[in-house]
Amino acid sequence: MGKTKTSHHASHLLLPLLFFSTLVSTSHGGGIAIYWGQNGNEGTLAEACATGKYTHVNIAFLNTFGNSQTPQMNLAGHCNPATNSCTKFSPEIKDCQSKGIKVLLSIGGGVGSYSLSSVEDARNVSSFLWNTFLGGKSSSRPLGDAVLDGIDFDIELGSTQNYDHLARFLKAYSKRVYLSAAPQCPIPDRFLGTALDTALFDFVWVQFYNNPPCQYANGNISNLVSSWNRWTSTVPAGKFFLGLPAAPAAAGSGFVPADVLTSQILPVIKKSPKYGGVMLWSRFYDVQNGYSSSIVGSV
Ligand SMILES: *[C@@H]1O[C@H](CO)[C@@H](O)[C@H](O)[C@H]1NC(C)=O
Ligand SMILES: *[C@@H]1O[C@H](CO)[C@@H](O)[C@H](O)[C@H]1NC(C)=O
Fold first, then answer.
1. The domain spanning residue 77 has which CATH number?
2. Is 118's C-beta closer than 6 angstroms to any atom of ligand 1?
3. Active-site residue set
4. pLDDT in tens, 63-117
5. How far is the CA of 132 from the centre of ligand 1 (A)?
6. In this structure, is residue 222 part of a structural domain?
7. Angle 119-133/163-173 helices, nearest 10 degrees?
8. Nearest CA to ligand 1 atom 12
9. Which listed ligand is nearest to 225 at the C-alpha?
């Protein structure tokens, strides 16, 4: 009797829920990840999150670390970590998170001084990241007491070594530390290939730009699609995002017009069960070009 009653109630509760989640999953199969932090004229973090366009925000960059250097964050004109003015973003980070947006710290970038000289160095950097930006404690937290959701590896220069160890040390603190990476589309990525092989990465936003062999060019989607298929079928990671410039000026090459993306590319790559969405470089260019607005209904 109790059982019948329970299942009766359950079906009433479940039906609207199932209906609702079906609607949500068909209209939003994937998300949009955005890089924020490298242009003081791109607006605040809170403004980015308030658009409702993004599911993941990478704060860019911590671009000095490792090799016994004092780690340094660079957020362009937004604030100055040296005078502690970046702590103003702490409530904004929490506000983004309260909207369900994951906020990660991106380490590396195209300009900087970083490398991991040894396993011990990787361990030290992992403990710095945990204590300074994640669930640990430190008297010096440049983004204040907000606890970020994870660390994004955008390693593009310096030594290729020990990033696999950094990933293992970070994930060992807590399974809830998300790890993401932004490799270039040629496989394997010179800097991140070994780290990705750990299978510890939750999100991989592959840069399908500035890489002619595997990007969109002159109306031809074939190199991009075959590279996407190789990534999603051979690299062990949670979800893959198609990394694109948000405007032609955002990269040297590889810009995909929004209508080509929504009508030709997304319908093909969304067939992969590993599809997670689209990553855009960057918030600044997205503000200029309105790219995310043009694609958000199709991701
Ligand atoms: C790692 O940290 C320890 C403790 O702070 C320090 O003694 C050691 O020199 C550091 N190693 C590297 C490679 O930076
Ligand atoms: C697109 O590019 C592929 C690979 O480079 C090539 O084989 C194919 O012929 C191209 N398709 C068109 C329509 O140009």
1. 3.20.20.80
2. yes
3. 156
4. 999 999 999 999 999 999 999 999 999 999 999 999 999 999 999 999 999 999 9
5. 16
6. yes
7. 40
8. 121
9. 2
Structural domain for 239, as ranges: 28-295
Is 15 domain-assigned? no
In a domain, 278, yes or no: yes
- Ligand 2 pocket test, pick from 211, 218, 221, 222 with the greatest ligand atom count within 8 Å of Cβ, gives 222
Q: HSE (CB half, 13 Å, CA atoms) of 210? A: 14
Q: Closest Cα to atom 7, ligand 2: which residue?
A: 222
Do strands 275-281 and 178-181 pair parallel, antiparallel, or not at all (unpaired)? unpaired
| Whether residue 68 has its Cβ less than 6 Å from ligand 1 | yes
Q: Determine, yes or no, domain membership for 185.
A: yes
DSSP string, 121-189: HHHHHHHHHHHHHSSS--S--TTTT---SEEEEEE-SS---SHHHHHHHHHHH-TTSEEEE--BSSSS-
Q: Is 264 in the pocket of ligand 2 (CB under 6 A)?
A: no
Residue nearest to atom 2 of ligand 2 (CA): 222
Closest residue by Cα to atom 5, ligand 1, is 124
- Report how far residue 122's alpha carbon sits from residue 132's, in angstroms, rounded to the nearest whole number: 15
Residues sharing a CB contact under 8 Å with residue 223, sequence separation 6 or more, in sequence order: 213, 214, 215, 216, 217
Number of domains in the chain: 1
Asked whether residue 26 carries a pLDDT value surpassing 50, the answer given is no
User: Minimum mean pLDDT among 13-22, 62-71, 130-139: which range?
Assistant: 13-22
Q: Output the pLDDT for position 29.
A: 85
